[in-house]
Amino acid sequence: MGQKLKIAGWVSVGVLAGALTTVSLQTMARGAMSPLPLEEIQQLSAVFGLIKTDYVEPVDDKKLITDAISGMVASLDPHSQYFDKKSFKEFKEGTSGRFVGVGIEITQEDGLIKVVSPIEGSPAFRAGLKTNDLITKIDDTAVKGLSLNDAVKRMRGEPNTKVLLTILRKDESRSFPVTITREEIKTQSVKGKVIEPGYAWIRLSQFQERTVDDFVRKVEEIYAKDPALKGLVLDLRNDPGGLLDAAVAISAAFLPQGVTVVSTNGQLEESKATYKALPEDYLRRGQGDPLQRLPAALKKVPMVVLVNEGSASASEIVAGALQDHKRAKVLGSQTFGKGSVQTVRPLGPETGIKLTTARYYTPSGKSIQAKGIVPDVMVDETAEGDLFAALRMREADLDKHLGSGQDDEKAAEAAREKAREEARKRLEIESKKPAAERKMPEYGSTEDFRLQQALRQLKGETVQVSKTLTERELEKKEE
């Protein structure tokens, strides 16, 4: 990772009390310490004292302080988070691509846990969990009221142990239990193949520490099978993001050396940075540059980038960079809209804080926070249409989401609610069909409608443009 990233700490652009002294020391060391609000600090101390003396049963001091920190951080935005000892370890495991659990990317919706996407090949994937499934119970514990962090803790555990999840699947109007056996999740973040002579498909499901090396190996494998590649589809659908340096590296694989990939801007001087297609901006210390092994033809091969509502964060950086530099056509539906950078700072040897420290901007200077990347060509999920896009969760739908910081344009809330109501009615009709008829085809298969349209785009053939998708506007901020 480049020096700019080392200074900032651990930087991720992905969907998660004695330390108070450490925080103060670190803050003062950066010269950013603001005067403490003494009256509010006295109130906090008074509340702490009242709980200790008056609460119905004794409460552990450490729990009170850590819960206060957790609440303070969680109130900022959906992506800032306090890590206790266990969750900090799990976070580090997640970025490395190895952890023990059920294998799902999750967020929160109406107090429940929502599946963003099951990790391909994981126990959850094999058990049939789907994007937009809601988890209402974990074993005997109701999810309502649990923090995202607590829900993750309960779903993770030791290998070969079981966890019982109660699932609410709205589009089938049913709730059902699923017992999943935990296992070590070794996420394979890169897939790919030659689809037909001259055309290849590479799918990135997440941006992890191993992603760039795996990507290079997959490209080498594809070019060994078909050296005269005429077109490439880079599939970022349902890619929730991950590490910033991996996103910069993947972008650099396709772009001219030295061009801007992404820029960031925040309060701290170290948050004001520009990341270019240069080794010093994506390599970690002591590592060689795997991109040097890539065939030169990769810089020129015609490209289409596939995205959808589940494409977030680091995947939006890549799509935005390739789109702005006119290196690829972006095809699909408008992306999630997570245009913020999270920095992970240790608060000690075993705890930390993930804090939103900057917004990121595409090379042309556009903030995509709460809006996302708008495809060059809007294409539905199926030949019959994409009738339920208004119901899908995006950054702008998350409670306390960060605004774009750039303008205050927004589609009227009334129009947005009208679109959702129409989608709900369609959903009622659709839910009466047999489940087999509503199952989405596997990515990369011959039944993958968007992939087939991407191939048509590469070949210069007519693409079936969306019947229903329109660009979402930013929300106006109320003054």
From TrEMBL:
GO terms for cellular component: outer membrane-bounded periplasmic space. Residues 88-170 form the PDZ domain. SUPFAM superfamilies: ClpP/crotonase (SSF52096), PDZ domain-like (SSF50156). Residues 400-448 are annotated as: Disordered. GO terms for biological process: proteolysis; signal transduction. Keywords: Hydrolase, Protease, Serine protease. InterPro entries: ClpP/crotonase-like_dom_sf (IPR029045), CtpA/B_N (IPR055210), PDZ (IPR001478), PDZ_sf (IPR036034), Peptidase_S41A (IPR004447), Tail-specific_protease (IPR005151). GO terms for molecular function: endopeptidase activity; serine-type peptidase activity. Pfam families: CtpB_N-like, PDZ_2, Peptidase_S41. Residues 400-441 have a biased composition (Basic and acidic residues). It comes from the Bacteria. Belongs to the peptidase S41A family. This is S41 family peptidase. It comes from Comamonas antarctica.
